Amino acid sequence: MSASIPENTDYRELTDRVKEWARDLGFTDIKITRASLPVGAETGLESWLAAGFHGDMDYMARHGFKRARPSELVPGSRTVISVRLNYWPGSAHDADQQLADPDRAYISRYALGRDYHKVLRNRLQKLAERIQQAVGPFGHRAFTDSAPVMEVALASQSGLGWRGKHTLLLTREQGSLFFLGELFTDLPLDVDQAIEPHCGRCTRCIDVCPTGAIVAPYTVDARRCISYLTIELQGAIPEQLRPLLGNRIYGCDDCQLVCPWNRFAVPTAEADFAPRHGLDSASLVGLFAWSAADFAERLAGSAIHRIGHERWLRNIAVALGNAPTTPAVLAALQSRLDDPSALVREHVHWAWARHGQSGGHESCADKE
């Protein structure tokens, strides 16, 4: 425990105040859990990594079991404050309609606005400052999908929700359309209790996955997951999976869109999460025309920006290959048949051939 904190601190009262401060800062909900996870978390992680389900995400294995041992990740941690913040953009173009139009680009609803990492991290830091004002300096560290933290495991252990069969956190009150964040502390705050899961026999999320990435309840093979393929994967998207991506160019929401609990989703009140630059209803051809400068300018401050212009074009090329054959689609693809990037060229040539056009099909290695 921090030596500067008064010995007579009432931690039950402090716990209540922390929760009040968190809600004052706009968090949808907050729970607190111990800075440790059961042994099962380690064995589950070990099995998942051994199966290769992490794909090219080497950092998942590089951190070893720190991911399942919060107190080793941040030495001295005693409790973890787990928070959630709704992101569903109520003003966005209907997600199902966008998915159903093969000429339009589907972007995961969480990425339509400002980068959530910045929003949550800033808010968690403000929460830490409020605590420090009350008790003095204390050990803490904030996380928002930014380190080897098993955030769903911690959140479910805290009672913030339960892990759904798609591996995301679910709540009865508002489904799963929210971000998670954590504040590790060395404070002995009162902890909350886990809640019972409420998925029952439902398998809609498993059944709807376009690529069959949910290989079993609570287990995702990232190598087949569209979010991994369009965001995390650095190289070429496997050819056998490309037709299954449809018009999804950044992430995938299918498993959440069909979840019965998300009928209770509450639109976000955060202006930062509102759609920017028409990304909620954009056309594939229009986005494919963006130059590197356009991409950098329009997506600055967005989570999408981190994949870079090259992978942005790679993803859209695949979607254009899955789109109906029209003069506009052919013209867009033809404009990038000789793109400077071997990665982009390979996907453009694949899409070009999908529309019955001659000109050959090259691999990334052909023109390096």
What does this 3D model show about the protein?
By secondary structure, the chain is α+β, with helices and mostly antiparallel strands. Among the domains are: 11-92 and 110-185, no CATH class; 283-368, no CATH class. The chain is 36% helix and 11% strand. It has helices spanning 11-24, 39-50, 59-62, 70-73, 95-100, 116-135, 151-158, 204-208, 226-232, 254-257, 284-288, 292-298, 308-322, 327-334, 342-354, and strands at 29-34, 79-86, 106-107, 140-143, 162-163, 169-170, 178-185, 214-216, 219-220, 248-250. A four-stranded antiparallel beta sheet has the order 1-2-7-4, with helices on both faces. The chain has a two-stranded parallel ribbon with strand order 3-10. The protein has a two-stranded antiparallel sheet with strand order 5-6. The longest helix is centred in the middle third of the chain and has 20 residues, at 116-135. The termini are far apart. Belongs to the QueG family. The active site is at 145 (proton donor). [4Fe-4S] cluster 1 binds at residues 199, 202, 205, 259. Keywords: 4Fe-4S, Cobalamin, Cobalt, Cytoplasm, Iron, Iron-sulfur, Metal-binding, Oxidoreductase, Queuosine biosynthesis, tRNA processing. GO terms for molecular function: 4 iron, 4 sulfur cluster binding; cobalamin binding; epoxyqueuosine reductase activity; metal ion binding.
